[in-house]
Amino acid sequence: MVRRRTIAIREYLIAAALALALIWLSFLTFSIARKEEIARNAVKDTQAQLAQLDSRRALLQQNINDLSTPRGQEAVLRQTYGVAKPGEDLIIVVPPKEAPAAPPRSWWQRALQWLGL
Fold first, then answer.
1. Is residue 34 one of the residues assigned to a domain?
2. How many domains does the chain have?
């Protein structure tokens, strides 16, 4: 009977150790999965930043190409400093004046208009 009890206690200890090992392994698995998700999100963010930087680099390269030509340099000077070639005149566009609104008519003027007078 003592031997049976010893075997039962040993089996319970082995089962408890295996249960603890299983809990520990599942904890490790979830920890690795969480880290993998964080890394995946970091990759997405980095790819978005890379795409943004690539578009900015393309824009800056286009600006450099424009500035490397005499026409592009002239356009930048004209735009930045308002430089004009000899013989060019300044044109100022003035918006048209708005006509003043008609004063509101009184009730008797509307009545006379309604009568056709």
1. yes
2. 1
What's the start-to-end Cα distance of the chain, in Å? 128
Give dist(CA 34, CA 115) in Å, integer. 85
- Does 103 map to a domain? no
Give the model confidence (pLDDT) of 61-92 as tens digits.
998 998 899 888 888 888 888 777 777 777 78
pLDDT band at 60 (very low <50, low <70, confident <90, very high): very high
Using left for φ > 0, alpha for ψ between -120 and 50, and beta otherwise, residue 82 falls in left
Please give the residue range of the domain that contains residue 78.
2-82
Q: Contact 113/107 with Cβ under 8 angstroms?
A: no
